Amino acid sequence: MVIQVKDFSKSFGKQKAVDNLNFVVNQGEIFGFLGRNGAGKTTTFRTLIGLYQADEGELLIQGHPFDDSLRNQIGYMPEERGLYTRATVMDVLLYMGRLRGLEKAEALSSSQKWLKRLKLEGHEKKRIQQLSSGMQQKVQIIVTLMHKPSILILDEPFRGLDPVNRQLVYDCMQELKRDGFTILFSSHEIHEVEQFCDRVILMADGQAKAYGKVEDIRRAYADRFLSLTILSGEIGEHEGIEWKRVHGNTVEIRYKEDTDPQSLIRDLMLNARIKRFEIAEPSLNDVFLQLCGDEVVVDE
Amino acid sequence: MNKILIVAGFEFMQTARRWQFLLITLGLPLFVALIFWLSYISQTHAGKSLDLALKEGAKIYVSNVPEELLPVQGSEMVVADSCPPISKTVLACIRFDKEWLKTGTVDLIASEQKALGLATSLRKRIDTLIREGLLANSLSKEQMDRLNRSSQVSLYFQNEAGIFAYDYHKLLVPVLFTIIFILSLSTASTFLLQSVSEEKENRTMEILLSAMRDTELITGKVLGLGSAAMTQVLVWMLGFVLLVPPLAKNMGISIQFHQVPWSHWFLAILVLGMGFLMYAAIMIGVGALGANYKDSQQMSSFFLISSFLPLYVLQMVANDLNGPMAFFLGLFPLTSPMVIILRFCLGSIALWDLLLSLFCLGLGMAFSIFMAVRCFRIGSLSYQRRPTWKEIRHSLW
User: Which of B207, B209, B213 should one mutate to test binding to chain A, selecting the residue with the greatest count of A CBs within 10 A?
Assistant: First the structure.
């Protein structure tokens, strides 16, 4: 395993940001952190790279607590990100590359390679403030990747990206995964996590609510879950329904533990013509809804 | 060390390349020189234009003054009962009051354009006329000439060992130190505050802190921005060094830099380094704590005012270099740099007193650095807000 977090807790004053968190990230996998703002994702990342000290527990990277020798092996993209707006693109890249242990010549060639890869050639001498926000995001990505880190820690990497750059980051992540990189990233956009991650951890209020492979988590929460396709009418309130979600003519329902699903469907058919029903696997979003009592998706 | 130097180099270059930096660094000495030149020109212009007008045959009409009082060679002055109209040939009229020896009242009549200038340039001649009129029958010509020349005062000081000629070189280091200290504080504190606040505002701080230790980042910043500030100050001082000797010469003082005791230079460099580090640390801490640059600037004003405090009470300190005011300001780290230098260079400070002041300054410097690192840790990742006292307290111990 590349990253191991054991019994990690962290508080700020009386507020517990992370409470007894445990997880591991294996070599070459994409591991997703899912949770709303304030769930404890950023605190965990910042503690992993030594910006915060853990109150309790251990956070190990390649078997060791974070120290200076690990800095150059990690590519970190914080949630709150920015660049020196008055400096030129090349100045920023050379500076950041050299801080990550590259010699000047290495930093230069790596910068040129990535600028070409991300179609930013010819912009080297421009000041950051002269670039569009999409271009600035690309520079940010280069800053994270240019020193060839073996571990990537990306805090909300898709936040604020336009569709083109979002796709670019998707592609980069897939490419890096193929090259054996270990990627740990957080998001509050569930579809991204579902689409990319080998394994995930669902967090709410500083605690892990679920942890494992996406399919395993979905399967584990597949009970008491119905998917209905209706032709007409509507699915109204019913005492046997714990929660429901409506997408067009599809309704997803989680029924209460003491409810008989067949009676429930019979009751629902009184007000709606149901074309099809099935006991389906919930999406990760449904699982999150079930565990945390609220939807995690903010930007759909 | 490598990362410290990389940060220092980047900060230095980013600051030094700004056009505002170049403009202020090179423009300020030129601007000061221009002001000096303009002031010199203005002073001499009135006299020159007077001389030129007189050379071209213009006259100054004087009334109610005995003709024998007028200078023999001053043919430009003509005694007349009344003032003719001002023209190219009549530059001005000086109308002495009938009781002028008692009252000293004089009316000067000139064109509106030249009235103020002539008032300045003719004042000495009028004063001489009045003095000579009062003493016409009491003093010889030699005595009268002596009276019209300014006095020659030589300064001496006395201590237990005797009376000694005052060495103006003693003033050089305190004056230079005060200028360098204030200028470097003003410029470096702006650079440091701006740099930390900007990195906090533009969110580069977290990326930097993931690449290096906070102490490395702080040290690199102090080195890089301190060097930028010192470069600026050195350019200004070069201008000062070029400008001061001729100015001093005009005042009758000969400045020889090599005559300044080496102990003055040594202490000045030591105290400047310690004081600069203390204030740099404070500015970094304040920059990290402020929600943004403006907020940090407001918070830093207390410390900057404290550093300038000795200037406000300079007279009191200089009047009694071993008095209670000088002693206590010398112990208080925020005010001590300037006071230590003043007391050491101009007075005779006891060794224990000097060492105690230096110890307090060292303590203040160490405490500032300790606080700055702590404040930086807590403040640098608190975006768009100032950390609460509780958070700061929690991070300190």
Answer: B207
Q: Which residues of A touch B206 (CB under 8 A)?
A: 46, 51, 76, 78, 80-81
Mean pLDDT within A168-183 = 84
Q: How much is the average pLDDT of B321-338? A: 89
% of chain B beyond a pLDDT of 90: 10
Average pLDDT of B74-96? Answer: 83
Looking at 3.30.1490, 2.60.120, 1.20.1630, 3.40.190, the CATH number of the domain B46-148 comes to: 3.40.190
Mutate to test the interface with B, among A76, A98, A104, A156 (most CBs of B within 10 A): A98
Domains in chain B: boundaries:
46-148, 170-396
Asked if pLDDT for residue A145 goes beyond 50, the answer is yes
Mean pLDDT score of chain B, rounded to an integer? Answer: 82
Q: Report residue B96 CA to chain centroid gap.
A: 42
Residue A292 confidence (pLDDT) above 80? no
pLDDT, residue A64, reads 87
Interchain proximity B210–A96, CB inside 8 Å: no
Q: Which residues of chain A lie closer than 8 angstroms to B381, CB-CB?
A: 46, 51
Judging contacts by C-beta atoms under 8 Å, the chain B residues touching residue A95 are 6, 10
At A295, the pLDDT band (50, 70, 90 cuts) reads: very low
Average pLDDT over residues A269-296: 75
Residues of chain B that touch chain A, judged by Cβ-Cβ distance less than 8 Å: 3, 6-7, 10, 13-14, 18, 198, 201-204, 206-213, 381, 383, 390-391, 394
pLDDT of residue B358: 95
Task: Name the pLDDT band for A107 (thresholds 50, 70, 90).
Answer: very high
Average pLDDT over every residue of A36-58: 88
According to the model, what pLDDT value does residue B73 have?
56
> Facing residues of B106 across strands?
B96
Chains A, B: CB contacts under 8 A, how many? 60
A91 in B contact zone (CB under 8 Å) = yes
Domains plus CATH for chain A? 3-215 (3.40.50.300), 223-280 (no CATH)
